[in-house]
Specification:
Elements (H helix, E strand, L loop, with lengths): L1 H19 L15 E6 L6 H9 L11 E6 L3 H9 L5 E4 L1 H9 L4 E10 L1 E6 L14 E4 L5 H14 L11 E4 L5 H7 L4 E5 L2 H8 L2 E5 L11 E8 H6 L1 H20 L1 H16 L5 H9 L1 E3 L5 H13 L25 H4 L1
Parallel strand pairs: 1-2, 1-3, 6-7, 6-8
Antiparallel strand pairs: 3-10, 4-10, 4-11, 5-8, 5-9
Length: 344
């Protein structure tokens, strides 16, 4: 109960921050580097690059001396995208679902790098009696948000392989939403039967014994190819201050390289940061299990994003058939990492 209360307080706090604003948009007309820059990310294991960059101060290494780099933490993609549109953050890591949904709704944003792939697990309550996906008919499943990345993965698979749909479109499965950190307690209380779960919360549920894996990451729709997190910034920032965007992406690339070269230290950073933000500590075994389901990469496949967006449209999350041909701008990840000493 204390952990749930802490997470609820965290959500209220970050939403209050988003409402208050206070960051510049970094898009100075002369292309100069602003004195303060704010990067956003979620307390999810798929966003470890943000945690490593913060812990190792990697963004600041690419900026002139005296530049302050702030970090803002988000409970969901909607609040992240709202903050980006308001100029409260210069960019950061978010799920591809919110990025694509806002882009197709007219938001002038770009995906400038990948963050990670994998990490979604479809799980069932331990005593639910569900043995196969077909058994989900008439059951209640939970996802972080309607139409979020994990929801689309789940509903795509259920629709295409098992002819099951949610009650949103008159189907057989009841859909509710909630924060992934609460899924363990939701299973224990019997309030939900199944969940589409991002790591590390899938591994938490496994360790606690409240749920079982029904479909693991490699078999989930888009499980190992879809970016679980992408790095997004505004088109305005790209147009008016491409040098700033390049330096931010350089820091993100350095963080991703650090994760690959120092996995054990990166796990410690992730564990401590998630506990700091959410109030929920994670065991080493949970982190290890979650790590096996995730690939950290700054590369991003625009073709997979388009296929995923098409699935969102077919599931009626999007009103119009999407065209993501200009969503991804890979020019920044194709550039070499800037020499930090030359920027200071």
């Amino acid at each position: 109960m204390k952990k749930s209360l802490l997470f609820t307080m965290f959500i209220a706090f970050v939403l209050l921050l988003a409402a208050c604003g206070g960051s510049n948009d970094g898009a100075s007309s002369d292309g100069s580097i602003p004195e303060e820059i704010t990067i956003g990310y979620f307390p999810n294991i798929n966003h470890v690059a943000g945690m490593v960059a913060e812990e190792k101060d990697l963004y600041a290494q690419n900026f002139p001396d005296g530049t302050t780099v702030n970090y803002q933490y988000f409970p969901d993609g909607s609040s992240f995208m709202t903050a980006l549109a308001a100029g409260e953050i210069e960019g950061g890591l978010v799920g591809p679902g919110p990025a694509m949904n806002h882009y197709t709704s007219g938001s002038e944003i770009n995906v400038v790098a990948g963050g990670s792939t994998g990490g979604t697990v479809i799980m069932t309550r331990a005593d639910s009696g569900i043995e196969t996906p077909e058994d989900l008919a008439g059951k209640t499943f939970i996802s972080p948000r309607v139409g979020c990345t994990h929801d689309v993965q789940f509903e795509t698979q259920m629709n295409e392989e098992y002819n099951l749909t949610s009650d949103r479109t008159g189907g057989e499965m009841k859909h509710v939403t909630g924060e992934p950190a609460t899924y363990h307690s939701m299973f224990v209380s019997g309030k939900v039967d199944a969940a589409t779960v991002p790591e590390p919360w899938a591994s938490v549920i496994e360790e606690e014994g409240s749920g079982e894996v029904l479909i693991d990451t490699p078999e989930v729709a888009y499980g190992e190819t879809l970016p679980a997190a992408v790095f997004v910034t505004s088109q305005n920032l790209i147009d008016n201050n491409p040098e700033l965007v390049q330096k931010i992406v350089d820091g993100h690339k350095q963080a991703t390289d650090f994760i690959e070269q120092n996995p054990e230290e990166s796990k410690i950073i992730a564990s401590e940061k998630i506990e700091e933000i959410t109030g929920q500590g994670l065991s080493a075994s949970v982190i290890d299990r979650a790590w096996e389901r995730i690939n950290f990469t700054y590369e991003v496949d625009s073709k997979v994003l388009q296929e995923f967006a098409d699935s969102s449209f077919e599931l009626e999350f999007l009103k119009d058939k999407p065209d993501l041909s200009n969503l991804v701008d890979a020019s920044f990840i194709e550039s070499k990492v800037a020499d930090a000493s030359a920027s200071n």
